[in-house]
Amino acid sequence: MKLISLELTNFRQFYGKQTIDFASGSDGRNITVFHGFNGSGKTALLNTFVWCLYGELTPDLDHKDRLVNERAFAEAQIGNEVPCRVALQFEFRGETYVAERAETITKTGSLDSQKSRGSLSLLKRSVGGETEQVGRDEGARQHRIEQMLPRSLYRFFFFNGERVEGLASPDAYENIEAGVKTLLDIEVYERGADHLRSGVTKALAEEAKRAGDDRLADAMDQLAKMEEEKNRLQAENHQHEENVSALFGEIQSAERRQEDLRDVAQMATRRNQLRDEEAELSGQLNQESRSLASQVSKNGYLAFGIRALDLTDDQVAAARKRGDLPAKIKPQFVDDLLAAGACICGRPIGAHTPEEKILHKYRASTGLAELEERIAGVSANIRSLRERRSEIFEACIQSLKKMASLRAKLRICKEDLSAINERISEGNFGEEAARIQQLIRDRGAEVLSNKVAIQRNIEKMSGLETAISDIRDRTKKLETLSAKAELAKRQLEAVQRVADALAQIRDIQKEDVRRSLDEKVGEIWREAAIKGYDASITQRYQLLLTKTVGGQRQPVMGASTGEKQVLALSFVGAMVSKAKENAARKENDLDMGGFFPLVMDSPFGSLEDEYRTAVATWLPTLANQVVVMASKTQWRNEVEKAMRPRIGREYILELHTPKKSADRQVTLDGKEYPYVVTDNGEDEMTTIRRVM
Amino acid sequence: MERRIGISSAQASILEDLVRNVPGESYSLFDTKQKVLMFAAALGFHLARRNELGSRDAGSAIRFDIFEKNLDDGFVHCLAVAERGELSVLAEAQEEELAGIFEEYANAGLAEMASRLLGRAEPLQALVDLMLSAKDSAPEEGLEGLDPSLLNDLMRG
């Protein structure tokens, strides 16, 4: 399958109709690159292939029920339809096809919608240029697509680079075994054996019955039924195993999301801390201001009055010096003498006499006596006023110092808060974390119940096998009642032997393919040149890294995520290579054409620096066409340098966001391009821009 | 009729503002109008300014005996003594004189406060700055050897 172009209409982040051409590899340039910020649609882009061809979505796509673009939906009138479409144009064995899957959303409310059933069309363009619809119905079209690239294999060709390392985990053997079996179309042998055991046996039972030999007929009937039951259990287990694979995929995605959330949760906790701190500091600042104001209100005036205090003190001191204070004679006393007209000694003093004049003179000079009480009061006060004056100054100075320090702390606190707010939005992360935890638990329980069912079926099948072999023995010993019955009996034995032989051939073939894949995986791994390890597929269909220690091969414990990723990619490369071989030989029902694309979201994510250049050089060799989605941090110097000579098409998934000051650029091949752009729309959306 | 301290119409509004909550805060600069006038009178004295009352604002007058009766009366008397240069101004008969002096200083002080505080973002700071600027005239207040203006800079930072 050779990818030619992709047309998206309102699919996920991609607003309106957007088209992509793929690098064909004709001039040695077989890489198509998409650069995108987180959330710009790299995963959505991966899903366009999987959704268009198979109607499926990858596990790490969230909100799977909202495929239609948010902005297009928001802009539509209530009652109108919003189309959501992906059309993939590709070439297969020299013919051009366009597969298109569409969904129509009818807007029934500002947030409500009704989804129409999705439709699939597959047009084939003939040499003359006319197009015709392939197959008489969607089922037929889906089947045709799966003949070109089988559903059970798509995970090896369209995948999330960060999840592919999962193939290298011990639980991934079902995926690997399934891939191997599909590739070989081993199903043919299995079906053949099944058919012989149950179908043909049933027919022979009829023969025996007609020949009148009931005992033989019964025995054959029983045999047929048991074989059918065994097949049914086998098919059930097959389904269970597929379920387990899918569930593991979901669990892995969820665990990844958990990790992200832990980071976010930490920041949210810090933010709450800072908010508390801010409130506390503001409170303290307010408190301090209030207390300062109260002090100023009570004693502030004293700041200005020092001269008044000094001058008053001086006056009092002077009066004391003069002898005016303390007053020696009270005015009242002299008044009484004047009124009595007598002196202290008792001698009468007449009016207008010189003695009376002297009394009046004394009276005049007692002036301050009246005020003595008041002056004493003031004098005493002055001392305490002076004290209060220095106290108020001291209090003001301390208060201002404290307020300045609080203000400085508050400023820092606010800066930290705004930094965090830039990085995380408001949101109850606790809820999501709890939800994901529950999801992981639930899926884990489902895995368990599937595995239990598988085990139970295996036991049942084992029981059946014993019973079957019993019946076979008995049947052999049965003496038949007629020549026809004897013939049926002998044919039954023959059928059993052929079925056994087919099963053996199947096992041998499977082992053959595994061995050849094992060799290939080893070869491809060595080309990536990592650390002197070897890579292989075990007989239990597990991907394994081994190292030679003292002449002995030992499994590598604790391979890094990056190493597992490369291992998984090596397996994918081996699959592609094997598929090509098969196509060349065209020896079975499967015809995959020989030309294979690899579409990878973030293949460089977890790789250690030392591997990046090696992997970047090696990736383009894995398949005929390579499509890569990468973020800015993943597309570092070594990677760009290694891949640049083989890039045939380059695009930027330009993210438009209403968030302020979110603008970012990316530098590609020395030139700068917009990467994230602030715009006025209410929803985020992505525009695909061609760079090369 | 008991003596009241009158406020000129020009200063009546600043008096109201100073006992109201500072905009954006939950406290006021002064608790009562009496406290404002004490501050204003002291300030007026410090600046050696007396404003004769032009037109009186009808509702703003405050009874003078309030000033005399509480703890601060010593200060009011000191102001009068300092102004007149003699102790006799403290006599009962001079009450009118006393109140007049206080009144004129207070109104002058209010005018100064209006010009310094109106429209300021941090009026409390301005008030304290004003106070601290008067500190320098009495270096024996306990911080010998330390240049007070240094402290002012510290405070503002």
Summed up:
Chain A is α/β, with parallel strands linked by helices and 692 residues long.
Molecular structure report:
The complex is a heterodimer of chains A (692) and B (157). With 692 residues, chain A is of the alpha/beta class. Helix content of chain A is 56%, strand content 17%. Chain A has helices spanning 42-54, 70-75, 138-148, 154-157, 173-184, 187-210, 214-299, 306-322, 331-340, 354-364, 367-423, 429-477, 483-528, 561-585, 609-618, 637-643; strands spanning 2-9, 17-21, 31-36, 81-92, 95-107, 113-115, 119-125, 131-133, 158-160, 534-537, 543-549, 552-555, 597-601, 625-630, 647-657, 664-668, 671-678, 685-690. In chain A, the strands form three sheets. In chain A, strands 3, 9, 13, 14, 15, 16, 17 and 18 form an eight-stranded mixed sheet that branches. In chain A, strands 1, 2, 4, 5, 6, 7 and 8 form a seven-stranded antiparallel sheet that branches. In chain A, strands 10-11-12 form a three-stranded antiparallel sheet. In chain A, a hairpin with a 2-residue loop joins strand 16 and strand 17. Chain A is elongated, with a radius of gyration of 47 Å. Chain B is an all-alpha fold and 157 residues long. Helices cover 57% and strands 3% of the residues of chain B. Chain B has a two-stranded antiparallel ribbon. In chain B, helix 1 crosses helix 5 (95-117) and helix 4 packs across helix 5. The longest helix of chain B is centred in the C-terminal third of the chain and has 23 residues, at 95-117. Chain B is globular, with a radius of gyration of 17 Å. Residues 138-145 of chain B have low confidence and may be disordered. Classes of the chains: A alpha/beta (692), B mainly alpha (157). The interface between A and B is large, with 47 and 50 residues.
